[in-house]
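Sequence, please.
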């Protein structure tokens, strides 16, 4: 394993991070998995991805975990290319900016993102790669499409997604989406590098970047689509999420409305 410290970029607004490099580049597409203290959930997920063996290089984007869930001893036994550990400020959007910038610098043609809490089915990764290879710029995973599956989804989340989140981002993005709260999605290289998108800005700290990239693709006339995916919540357990309490949900709603109002358009 090679460890490299990456200082904040002047060309792009990206937080400082350490690169733990385990394997050489082998694929056209990267799978970015953001995590922070996901414990056994991310370990099960990485094993599941290894079993499915999708045509991607796996990149873990660690926000600063303290639970040793993605330590070198565990990761080195799996087909993971790199673990990027954010040492600078910011939350989820900063983790994603870090990982996307690194993947672009490494020459990947497309980037797929899935949550690191084990809810997403790895079998859909290959279909996302296929859509990116066909020339799509934004590929949204949807549990609600024919062939998709929503397992044990809390009613509150279903209502928020179907009645608020998806309609608003569909309106803002000029394309009908069914599952915009789903973090399982893919982006083309040309989309992320387009100056009219400009995703590498410090204004993106929490969930804003995910919402913004959903809307911006349609606004620019990029080629977009949805693919069916499986999203499963654990039965009899609290939903795995970093959105805590009323205050956290209200803040996320504010970020959503900011995207709809065009606040982040460069």
């Amino acid at each position: 394993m090679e460890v490299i410290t990456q200082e904040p970029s002047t060309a792009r607004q990206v937080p400082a991070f350490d690169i733990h490099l385990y394997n050489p580049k082998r694929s056209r597409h990267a799978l970015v998995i953001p995590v922070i203290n996901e414990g056994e959930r991310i370990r099960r997920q990485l094993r599941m991805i290894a079993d499915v063996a999708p045509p991607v290089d796996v990149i873990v984007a660690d926000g600063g975990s303290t639970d040793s869930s993605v330590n070198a001893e565990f990761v080195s036994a799996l087909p993971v290319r790199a673990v990027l550990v954010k040492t600078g400020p910011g939350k989820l959007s900063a983790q994603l900016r870090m990982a996307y910038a690194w993947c672009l610098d490494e020459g990947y043609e497309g980037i797929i993102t899935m949550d690191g809490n084990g809810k997403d089915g790895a079998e859909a990764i290959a279909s996302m790669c296929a859509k990116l290879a066909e020339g799509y710029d934004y590929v949204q995973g949807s549990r609600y499409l024919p062939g998709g599956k929503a397992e044990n989804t809390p009613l509150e989340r279903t209502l928020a997604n179907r009645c608020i989140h998806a309609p608003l981002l569909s309106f803002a993005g000029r394309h009908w989406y069914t599952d915009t709260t789903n973090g399982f999605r893919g982006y083309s290289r040309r989309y992320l590098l387009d100056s009219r998108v400009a995703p590498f800005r410090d204004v993106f700290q929490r969930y804003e970047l995910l919402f913004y990239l959903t809307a911006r693709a349609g606004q620019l006339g990029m080629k977009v689509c949805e693919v069916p995916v499986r999203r499963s919540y654990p039965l009899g357990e609290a939903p795995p999420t970093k959105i805590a309490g009323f205050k956290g949900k209200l803040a996320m709603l504010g970020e959503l409305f900011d995207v709809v109002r065009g606040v982040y358009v460069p």
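The mean pLDDT is 91.
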